[in-house]
Predict the 3D structure of the following.
Amino acid sequence: MTLAKLQRKFLRQLLALLVASILTLGQSRKDTSMSSVFGKNGGLSMSTSFQDQASELLSGDLIPFLSDRSVPVILARITNIEKRSGADQTEAGIVTLRVLRVLRGGRLKNGDLIAVSFGGRFVDPLVRVRNRFNQWNQLSLTPGDLLLMAVKPGAADHNYIGMAAVQVQSADDPQVPAAQQICGIEDEQRSEPKEHLLSQALFSNQPMLRFYALEAISRKNVIKRDRGARMIEDAILSSGLSAEAKQDLGSKLITGGFFDESQGADSVNAGIIAVLAKQTVESRDPEIAEQWMELLSSALGNEFSPAPHEDREIKVRLVRSVNNPTADQVISFLATQVASTATADGREIAKKLLNLWKSAGQKHS
């Protein structure tokens, strides 16, 4: 994963968190006076004020809400849709849902029929595809569809406001047990069992569960920095994860507060450099190896001290702390990259790392 991709991924995660914050803090202003009445067809009649109540912004990222024990999470089937189109080429309305499973419920129970209002959804399907900021545009909203959804209670007993949702294919969709497992981890308040559950989640090839574990471990006061870094490193070095999953973990070591330049060449930073170097040298796919090399360069490219000499000394100490792979292996790999990497950026990164490894006093034999 290139640095540009990492930056885009970071921006998407930041955007998702922003959406979550807007939904959590701002939607209460919309929770006013919509009244809905269940009809004979299992749907809901829309009051004249439904547009004021419509949940115009829905997140596609369930993780922030699964991490909040106060937010109900349900698996539900759409039974009815009522909507109206506006002059701005968007539509709003009410989705009637039958609750099939309560993952975390508050007052909700299996079998409940609830109403969730929506808005800001583009009428044109081709326009919806280009507007992923609002998850309402990404849901087909067809009767019979299954939604895994985080909600908040509305003004009336059966009215709810959608916070985040994803469409799933069946009740056995891998995202459903993953969400249930996340709720269980959040419910665990004892530190040692919680740490064990988070560690197991890091080894999952289910993206939502793994990303949740990464976010949870990165939270302050949940897992200590040294222990969190070690947990992520163990998952990277495991054999069961995909190359992409391992790179997600590696990028989190850099961006999640584990690699901390203010701590200089401490054992945590040294361990991270060693893992990144090992993945760089041992990856058989040239493209993947180059992506690990970029992560390694990103870590060692930090400024550890405003004094150039001290900054250089810290970087040298970090490089010297790497025993596996050996200095010879790293130097040999980087020399090959300088000579053969297809991109100019890749060659420049390899050259800088090669010079740093050589300057550490560990010469290729």
